[in-house]
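INTERNAL AUDIT FORM
Audit reference: QA-55
Scope: verify that the stored structure record matches its stored sequence.
Auditor: D.O.
Record contents follow.
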Amino acid sequence: MSNIIYDCPHCGTQKVYFKVFYSKQHLKKTDIYNALAECGSCYEPIALVINWVVPYPKKDLPHEYFDAICTANNFFGLKVFPAPPATNAPDHVPDDVKRCFEQAAKSRNAGLFDAAGMMYRKTLEIALKGFAPEIVAWRLDTRIDKLAKEGQITPALRDWAHEIRTLGNDVVHNAIEVTQAEANQLHMFCTMLLMYLFTVPEEIALNRKKSESN
C-alpha cells in the first residue's frame, strides 16, 4: 500500500502519512487516477486526483505501489478533497495583526483550541490598539465600546468582539476549555471584524483611486 504526505484537513496534523487504499484510472485521461487515502493520525479520509507518471511501463495502480508515492518522482497531486482550512488573514491587515491571526487559525486547525482562543483575543487586542491608542492596553473592553460609540464598528461587531475578549480571558484566568465549535465561531467573528476594520475600507479606497485615475 502506498503513502502520501499531506496536511490533514480533518485533525490538522501537518505532514502526516496518508495510506492510499484505493485508486482507479480516469476513463478519458490515461495518466489521471482518482484515489482515496486515510490519515495516519485521525483515520479520516481524503479524495485525490493524481497525475500518475512512472519511468517504466505502468503495472501497479497508485494504491498498489509499495512506496511513498509522493517522493518517488512519479506522483503529481492535482486536487485534494477536502482542502485544508485556510489560515491566511484577510487582505490589508497589518503585519502584526496578521501574524497573530494566522497563529490562531493554525492552532484551531491543529485542534489546539485553548491556544486558538488566546491568540484570537490577542489578534483583537492588537487590531484595536491602533484605533484607540490612548486607552491602556489592558482595557480591551473600553476600546471595543469606544469604537462602537464612535460608529467605527457596528453593534453586532461590538458584541462579537466582546465574545472574543471574554472567551480569551476565561482561557487565561479561569482555565476554561475552548471547544471546537467555539474556536470555529471565534475564527469567523475575528475574520469578519478584521475585514470590517481593514479590508473593506482599503478596498473602497483602492477602487476610488482607480476610478479617479480613469
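Auditor finding: record pair retrieved intact. Strands lie at 2-6, 16-25, 32-39, 45-52, 75-81.
Action required: none
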